[in-house]
Structure formats: C-alpha cells, structure tokens
Amino acid sequence: MRADDDLGYEPPTKDQVADALLVLGDDQHRRLFYQGLQNPLWVEPLDKIGAFNEVPAPFQDAQGYLRSKGWSEGEYLVRMAEYVPSKVTPILVRMAKTEDAFARRMIVAAAARLDGENAAKLSKLVGKYLTGDRSRRVPPQEIARIIEALMADGKSGHALKLASCAFGPREATDAVGAGYGRNRVTTGLEDYAYGETVAAVSIAMAPLGLKWLGELRRWLQRYQVLARSLEVADGDDANGVESDLSYAWRPSIPAHEQNHEFDEVGNGLVDAIRDASTRALTDGLPATDVIGPLMSSRQPLLRRIGIHTITVAIALGLGDAQTLAADVLTDEQYLEANYRHEYAEFARRALPLATPEVLTTWTRSVLEGPTATDEEIRGWLAWRYQGAEVPQDAVDERRRTWQMRILSAIGTGIPATAAERLADLQAEFGAWENAGFPRYVSSGSGETAPAEMDEIASWSIPGVVEFLRSWSEPTESAFPSPSYVGVTFAFVEDVKSRPVEYAEAAGLFAETDSRYIASLFNALQTVADSGIVFPWAPVVRLGASLAEVQPVVAIDGTAASRTDLASLHRALLSMIQGGLSAGGETKPVIGVDAWPDVVRIVSALASDSDPTAEHEVEYGGANMDPLTLSMNTVRPSALRTAARLARFSSGKDERGTSVPEVNGAILDVLDRRLGSDLDSSLTVAAVFGEALSSLAWSNPGWTRDRLSRLFDGDPDYASVVLSTVLAAYSPSLFLLDLLRPWLPQWLERLATDQPVKVGYQHDRSATESLGDHLVLLAARGEIESDDPLLVSYFARADVASRSSVLGRLGWLLLHDKAPNRFLARACAIWDWRAKAVDGDQTESAELSGFYWWVRCGQFEPSWWMPRLIVASRVPGFDGRGMIGEQIAEAAKDDPRAAFDVLAGLLASGEGDFARYDLIENTPAVLAAALDLDDPDLTERAEALLNELGRAGHLTMLQRVNELRRRG
Length: 967
Known about the structure:
967 residues, mainly alpha, two-stranded antiparallel ribbon
C-alpha cells in the first residue's frame, strides 16, 4: 500500500497529540512512544508540532571518537515512509543535512521505502552521503532499493547520478587509502558489498541500454588508472594499447576458480560489464554497439570483456557476430598473452564458422608468428644469458613455444594445418596443461606447509591426526612461512591419494579442528565423485557424532565460531548428498548400514538456525534466490539430504532399498519442517519444491496428505514451492494433477502487478514456467486444449509471457524430431491463439515468437508462410536473423508467398544488421519471384530490388542474376 492511500487508520485527535507532547521530551519515553507507534497518520501532526525538527548531532566520547545517539523519530519515519511517502519526504529533506552517521542511515533506509517520485527528491542528498567522509555507514542494499525505485518511476537521470556516487571509483585522499594499488581507490560503498550491489543495480539499470554500459566502462577504466597505475587516455585520439596485466588479477572474464576474490571493486565491475553486455545482446541491442566500445578501449581488460561478449554473440546466433569475430581473428595483437584465456574460448567457437579468407589469414599469423624480429626476441631472452649472445636456436625455440601456447590454449576447432603444427609441437614439448592461462595458480599455491609434511604420505593416520592437533602457525616469521592453508592443502591431497585408510580411521578426527574435518569431508566427496570406492560407515558415523556434539577449539585456540561449525555441517551434508547419488543409475554408495547415522545427522541439522531470517534478508532477495541460498546453508541442506534418503528408503526406487524404520524416521524429520506454520524460511520452501515430485512418487500417501500445509499457508511460501517445482521438473501430467488445486489461485497472483516470490531465478519467469508446462502437456495430448487451466492461463497471463511460451514451444522443436500427432496438436494450439487475438493490436503481440516455429524446420512452408505474414505484422515481432534461409528455401515452391513474407519483414526491420539474415537470403527469393513470369510479382520484386540498391546493397542485382542464370 503506497502513496497515502486509505490506510485503515484513524487520524489522531488534538488531545492525543497533546498527550504525546508530554512524553516526547524524555529519551526513554520518546523511544517507547515511537517504537509502539504504528499509525502513519501521526506523521503530519507530529511534524506540525516540531517533533522531527532536531536530529541528534554526533558527539565525542572519552577516547575522542565520534559517536551517534539513537534517533527514535527516524526509526518511525523509516517504517512510515512506504505508507505516507508524500508526508515523510519533506521531513527527510529537511533533516538530510545532518552530520550524524546513524541519522543518515535512517534517512537512507526511509528513502529506500519511498516510491521513485519521492525518492528523487532525496537522491542528490544521498549521493553526497556516499561521497562524504562517513559514506561507509550507508547500507548498500538500501542504495540498490532507491535506484530500483527511481528506475521504476522513470527517474533514470537521478538513478544514474546516484549510481555514479555509489559505484564510481575515485582516488582515495585519506591516510589509509592513499598510496598504490587498490588502496588508491575508494567508492561510495564498502568493498565487501560492492560486487553484489552493483550486480543488483545493473539489472535495474538495464533499460538504459548503451548509456548504462558506457557508465560501467568508464568506471572500470578509471579504476584501472587508479589501481593499476595506467595512463589516462588523452581523449579519443590517444594511441597505443596499455599492458594492464589484468590476466594476473582477473585470469578469466567468466566465473572461474582461477579468479581471485580479494579485488572486490575490480571484480565487481568486470562482472557487471560482462553481465550487462550479455543482457544487452539478449535484449536485442546491436552487437556492434555493445561490443565496439569495449574493443576500442586502450585497456586489454575491457577488450577481453569484448572478446568474451563476441563469443556470447556467436552462441546467440546474432547476425553481426561473424563480422566482429573476423575483426578479432585477423588482428594479430589478440594472439598475445594479455587476451589468452578469452581468446582461446572465442577461437574455439569462431574458427569453425569463419570464412576461408579469415582462416587463411589467421593460420598464417599463428604459424609465422610472432611478428617480432629475431633481434627483438633476443632482447626478450637476454636476461637468461647474462650478457652472452643469445643463440639462434633459443630464438627459434621461442617462436615455437609462442605458437605452442596459442594452439594448445585453443585445442579444438583449429584448421587442419594448425592442428598438424600443434601435433608436431606436442611431440617436441609434450602436452601443456592450462595453456589458456598465461599465469595458472594451482590450489594451495602461495601457501606452504611445514617441511615435515613432505613425508605425510608415509605417516600413519594416527600420526597425521596427532600432527594436525599439535601444529600451530608461527606468529612471526619471514615470508613465505608455513600456514594453515598450506597444511590443509597437503592434508587434502594425502586424503585423495589413500581414501580407504582415511575413511576407515575417520573417527580419529573427532577431536581435530572443525576446518580440518570439513576438509576431510570435502576430499572424500571428491574421491566419491571420481568413482573410487571406500567404506562410508565410519565417515558417516563421525558426522553423526559431530552433528550434535561439535568441536569447541579452533585452530587458533579460541572457541569455534558459528561460521566454522556451519562450514563443517555444510561440508558434511554435501558429502552425504554426493554419497546418496554418486552411484548414478546403480544403488547409492552409502550403504544401508550407514543410513541410521544419516538419519541422526539430518535430524539434528534440520533444526539448525542457519539460515536465520536476517541472513535470508541480507543474502537473499535480489542477491540470491531461495533455492541457490538453500544450497549454501545448513538447515535446507539437511532437508534436501532427508528428501533424497526418503526416496531411496521407500523401496519404490529400484536403486534404493525398502527400510521402513529408516523411511519412517526420515519422513518424521521432513514432517517437522514442512509448511510455513512450522518453518517460514523461503529456502526451506524451495527445498520442498525441489523435492516435491520425487517425494510424491516415492511416498505418495504421506506427501499428498501434506500438500495443503505447503500451499494453504503463507502465500509467498506457497509461491516459492510452486515456482521451484515448475523450474525443477519437466512437464508431466502426474505433476500437474498434484498441483492443480492450487494453480488457479497462484495464476491469479501471477496476473497481478504485485511482485511474486519465486524459488529459483532462471531464464524463465514463474508465469512463463507455468505456461511452458501447460502448453507442452497440451501438445502431447495429455490435457485437452479446452482444459480450464490452460484456457485460464491464456486469459490471465500477460501478453509478453504468453508470447514467450508460444515461442518456446517452437524453440523446443529445434532439438528433436516430433511425432506427427504432436505437430498437429501444436498447429492447433497456434491457430487457436491466433484466432483469439485477431484484431487486437496489443494482444496480437502474443504471436511475436513465431519465428521459432519457422526456424525449427518441422512444419511445411504451406502451413507457416501465411501465418508468418500475420505474425510479422504484430507489435514486437523480430525474426532475430533466424528465418531468412527458411524463407529462401520456401521460395522454390511458392515464390509469391515467400516474397510477401520477405517484403513485410524487410519493411519492419531496423538497419542492415537487424536484417542481415534476410538480406543474405534475399537474392534467392527475388530470383524465384522474377522467374515466375508473373507481371505483378515481377513489378514488386523489381521495386524492392531498386529500393535495396538505393539503400547501398549494390551487388544485390548481380547476385540475383547469377542465381537466375544457374536456373
């Protein structure tokens, strides 16, 4: 409820306000008054009597530190901001000049609950907080909410300026920040929150398109100038490309284990530009506009992002991707180490699609490279020879190793000549691992273990345990010195080398530090995943003893923290989940003899406090969906493990074994947490959604008796369960019958403008997922086309979702040949929907995804061409460069219809890149039309030919005539 609507409250009387004056002077009474005040209609009368005129000023404590007093009035305004924004906003504007850090937090928190119209009045003041000395006290998640509200209400200018204050890198001027490297950079947010916050904001800013991408690029370039001591480019005329050595601190533009986590701002900006660029491509922005500015940067880091984005564009099948790819493949500078990892991934996709001319140029560049002269290479190698002349053999070998690095990094998809050279080089040098990284860091690298651990492989397991219990990290020592990370790395490698010995003696580790035990569990899970067999019962027994009685002494001698225990429990549960599924199509590798201990573990950890409600608020929401968060927290992981054992112990799964006592006990564990009344956590809801179909199949009576507990309680909880089920399972009549009683009410929620909680954020929205299930079941014939739920879906769902669902049905047909009965029912569905929206310009946009039906190649042109003509006229239709070839092929049998389709699509296209696929196939359609000897069609074809010629397609006539001569 927003914007001063009828809130269901009574305004205070004069006497009530007068009584309030009696308590507003005393801090304690004032705090109690405002904490208990829930009526938003008090804001205006309290303001009139001056209740909000004074914001506590910061004060110095005995040690000279600035401290803040509480501000009860501000806390009340935060709560009321969303209900009476027009009354709260003027007060916040007056109060915003305060220097008190706590009061500023309240003002920002209140602003985050305003609509965009009112938030805009505070955005400049909030921006000053972010750029001021005390900006680090501003909550980052609130900044994201303000920016999202501004964008939602069309205040993009305010949103962009506030984002610049929050995320724009600037040079640190304080004593701590000044200096070199990352310490020279400061932003409006704490570093730890930078990456997550800029990712969330970037989604909200996506409608700004290229303008937002440009802002992100400028921030990253500025960051590199400050943190990496790069030069500031002198306008657009600056020459030369700098060597930013970004491959060292950011080895991979996509997520990769080689990437370091310590550079929060740099990594956050790289991730934001990468994801925003991909999002822009999928939103239909021209690839040249998205990628061109990245490739023109002087900084290799931005060019690497550009190369990665070209790879994405190729995968998306964008028409102008090949032109961009050819530019990179024929430019020798991208063969150097600065670009190696992204270039290798790019080349594997681009080379198989390149033209012969591009392949010839690329092969020559690699096999004759590097372009440096022998003398230049001698200069590179001079340090090895300490003043002596560098021999020619060393120069030649340097050329061959250069080629080896490039060809090994790419590996597959290279031309035959290059593949032969790679084979010769591998015969000379051997196979090179990790050639795609100029600098590859192995796990544990940079951290050392004590010298005595070099002999760990010869130690007995009791000897290993004794060492782990007794060793401590030196407090003062020269770098590099032995560390706990180095010890753990050596320990894990030893576990992997002799897992049976460690598993049999697992109980000995009960009194070691929790982090060593977690490492033991992680190592054994890796071993199990590789297919190696070891005895599970002792390991699970160790886990059972720790689920209730945890170690109390940490490595540093202090009591183990909650974080340490959570890490241990997550490692334990992850190991067990792997052990219950590592057998694949065979039985779980954790034998029945260990199942009672598994029950003990999940019974204890299913009551764990992780995640707390506060944890879900901080790390969930826009940052992480409930299902993903559930995988990183203890209680949901325990329930996921329980659900898996419930399936195997039921006896219904042929991979399991019927063990009634285990099955009953494990179902009791689930029963204690099932439903919002027992556990309101949305991560738990997501786990039940993920497991629901499996539970209903393996334990049908138990599950069906409890469905109402899942779906009749808290609407958000029910929505998370439903959305997760639909995302986790393929469409089936079994699943639909299970959910059918609750789907109509959920569909009503989806059809409103109110946000709906979803359990798993993936490429399909909750509304689309529901439609996908219904439409596919109808196409299979498992439900009728007049099924009330299907009919209601197309009556209630928004037009964009309906269009996406119909388009996806055609997309599915790209991958597998469908039976004729399926195709006939699909055609009937399409015709039903086309008839339903005929004549309504807005609703007809439902047909805008028809290009997939053409592209899939499973329908006769005689069926799809007249329907394509209709679909191409609806708002939002875009062939996305996918159907030109199909239209050209159809022109052989029906030139007139093919020409009508082509002419209509060309008339609605925007720019040659948007129409590239059509332009490339236009000569075949025009040639077929002119050969038909139909005067009217000939006139129209010649008119289109002339129009294309005037638009710059000067070879079109020549190409048409060549096709006509061939007959």
